[in-house]
Write a structure and sequence with these properties.
Layout (H helix, E strand, L loop, with lengths): L14 H16 L1 H26 L5 H30 L2 H6 L6 H28 L8 H28 L3 H11 L17 H8 L3 H13 L6 H29 L2
């Protein structure tokens, strides 16, 4: 007697990934308040530092040119932080149980969150740059410099989003994921984002010089203002690639371990 076993054909190509990217984008559009806050908060900080603290820091009035690269990375951080909450929500609401019954790669869920976050944050970054131009930001970057700037920003967004996605997997609840992500948002303040590193206390200078945010900011600042990039670009790329690799491996392990128990 022959026993027939039903098999589920696996989705081919990137069908699963494109489906989850579309799902995450739809969630982003529906959660318009989160998208607005990811743009409004950095713009408010830029206005505060430019018009309230700017003259005290740089009486010449050129502080806006200095602070914009840091504001751009703050914008990326605020936007990517929501990924941790979204991933944690998926892991704790039972939707993963339904996904596991489908013939798809488990990584497609995380890919959807990460790619949608990248698109969402690039849009928010463009809005922040436009607002900076309205308040007096005057970069001297060429077209190729702008392309390089958005390449560095995209790489940084990809790195921090993968890290936030892994944090969302590790957290026990969406509230916990939000709290852990909030800690990472302080990193730009301990960098060259708002003041030169050499103006900090000596013990803090070492931290600012040896964390990933500073070379990314210095690379973006040099490209926008037409100053030498030096070796900061290689450090920025190296940091971002290392974070992506570590977060992707950590996230894949967490997803298999947690989703497998459900």
């Amino acid at each position: 007697m022959t026993t027939l076993t039903a098999t589920r054909p696996r989705l081919r190509g990137f069908t699963a990934e494109s489906t989850f990217i579309n799902r995450s984008l739809i969630h982003s559009i529906r959660d318009i308040e989160a998208l607005l806050m990811a743009v409004v908060l950095p713009v408010m900080l830029m206005l505060m530092f430019t018009f309230i603290f700017g003259n005290a820091i740089d009486p010449s009035g050129g502080y806006v040119d200095y602070v914009v690269p840091g504001i751009i990375l703050l914008c990326a951080g605020f936007g990517a932080a929501s990924t941790a909450v979204a991933v944690s929500r998926d892991m704790t609401t039972g939707i993963i149980d339904r996904f596991r019954t489908m013939p798809l790669r488990s990584g497609a869920v995380l890919t959807g969150h990460v790619v949608a976050s990248l698109a969402r944050n690039l849009l928010a970054t463009a809005i922040v740059v436009a607002a900076a131009l309205l308040v007096g930001f005057r970069p001297s970057a060429t077209f190729l410099d702008w392309v390089a700037v958005f390449g560095v920003i995209a790489l940084y967004i990809l790195a921090i989003t993968y890290l936030f996605a892994a944090i969302g997997l590790a957290a026990s609840s969406p509230d916990a994921a939000s709290g852990y992500g909030f800690i990472l948002l302080f990193l730009p303040y301990v960098s060259s984002a708002f003041v030169p590193v050499e103006t900090m206390p000596e013990w803090l200078q070492w931290i600012a010089d040896n964390q990933p945010i500073t070379p990314v900011i210095e690379t973006i600042r040099a490209l926008l203002m037409g100053t030498p990039v030096d070796d900061s670009a290689w450090w920025a790329i190296g940091w971002c690639v290392a974070i992506i690799a570590a977060a992707a491996i950590w996230g894949a392990w967490l997803f298999r371990r947690k989703a497998g128990r459900r």
